Amino acid sequence: MRLEGRTAIITGASSGIGQATAARFAEERVNVVLASRSRKKLEALALDLVSFPGRTLVVPTDVTDRLAVEALVRKTAEEFGGVDILVNNAGAGLFAPIAGGSPENMRRLFEVNFWGAVNCIQAAVPYMQTQGRGHIVNVASIAAKITPPYMGMYSATKFALAAISDALRSELAGNRIGVSTIYPGLTQTSFMENMTQELEVPPLPPVARFVSSEAVARRIVQSIRLGLRDAYISPEDIAMVGLNTIAPQLVDWTMRTFMGHPLPIDAPAIEIPRSRLPAPGGEQSEPA
Fold first, then answer.
1. Is residue 36 part of a domain?
2. Which residue range(s) make up the domain with 218?
3. Domain at 260, CATH number
4. Could you give the CA distance from residue 270 to residue 100 in angstroms, rounded to a whole number?
5. Is residue 33 classed exposed, middle or buried when 0-12, 13-18 and 19+ CB atoms within 10 A define those classes?
6. 2 within some domain
7. Judging by DSSP bridges, how do beta strands 94-95 and 85-88 pair with one another?
8. What number of helices (H) and strands (E) belong to the chain?
9. Set 150, 154, 183, 232: catalytic member
10. For residue 181, which of 132, 127, 219 has the smallest C-alpha distance?
11. Residue 188: what pLDDT?
C-alpha cells in the first residue's frame, strides 16, 4: 500500500511502539489519528508531530469501550474521509501465576489486549470494505510464540490476537484489506514498569537484548507497504521461535533457568478429605 495521504488510527499511541509508529507515519505524510486513554499524553505527542507533513487528530479512547471505539472510527472518517490503516497496539501486561493469579486481572487483560482489538476491527472494517481497500496491523508479541513462566495469561492474549489475524486475513482477502501480525520481542518501552505485577519480577539476564520502539515502528510501516503477513523484529527473536519449534523442552528449561527458583503461589491451603477407595498401589486408605 502506498502510504502518502492515507489515514491511520493507532491505539495505544501515547507511548512506546504506538508513539514511535505515529512519528514514522507522520514522516511518511500519513494522517495520524492518536488514540489512548491519556488525553494529556496524546496532545503532547500531537505537538511533537506538528513539524511533520502528516496531519494529526487526537481522540482519547478506551478500547474496551465499544461505543467509544465506534465513535473514534466515525470521527476519523468524518475528519479525513475514510479509514485506511488500523494499528491495534493498545495493550497491558500481567506477571502472575496461572493457578494462583487474580481472575479479575486476567479478565481485564483479555478485555484490553484481545477484545479491545476486536472492537477496533469490527468498527473499522465496514469503512474499509466500502472504500475497497485497507490494512490492519495487529501488534502481538514474541510471547505469542514462546510463553515465559508467570506470563501465561499475557501470552494467551497474544496467541489469541495472532489467531484472529490469521483467520481475518483469509476472511477479508476478497476485499483488498490486508492483515499483518507484528511479533516484537524485548522492546525499550515502559511496558515492564506499567505491567500489573502480582509477583516480583526477577531481573532479566545480562544477555537479554532490547530493540528500540523505532525499530518496531519501521517494521510496521514496512509490513503495510509490502503487505507482509508476519513480521519479527530481530534475528534473536526469529532464532528463539525456530528453536522453540524444534526443541521446545530446551526452551522450557532456558525459561525456568532465567526465572530462577519457582516463585511461591499465594493460594489457600486445602484439606483433602479421606477417601474410602483403595489408594494407588493397592494400599488401603485410613477410614474417615
1. yes
2. 7-282
3. 3.40.50.720
4. 13
5. buried
6. no
7. unpaired
8. 10, 9
9. 154
10. 219
11. 82
Contact yes or no for 181/162 (Cβ under 8 A): yes
- Strands 230-232 and 177-183, bridge-based pairing: parallel
Please provide the average confidence, as pLDDT, over all residues in the chain. Answer: 90
Contact predicate 175/128, CB 8 Å: yes
| Residue-level pLDDT at 270 | 74
Amino acid letter, 113? N
Mark whether 232 is an active-site residue. no
Q: Tell me: the pLDDT tens digits for 72-94?
A: 999 999 999 999 999 999 999 99
Count of structural domains, the chain: 1
Cell reading at 107: 479478565
* Residue type, position 234, single letter: S
What DSSP line would sit under 35-98, residue for residue? ESS-HHHHHHHHHHTTTSSS-EEE----TT-HHHHHHHHHHHHHHHSS--EEEE-----EE--T
Q: What Cα–Cα distance (Å) separates residue 212 from each residue in 16, 201, 209?
A: 9, 21, 10
Whether residue 1 lies inside any domain: the answer is: no
- Would strands 56-58 and 31-35 be described as parallel, antiparallel, or unpaired? parallel
Q: What are phi and psi of 277, to 5 degrees?
A: -75, 155
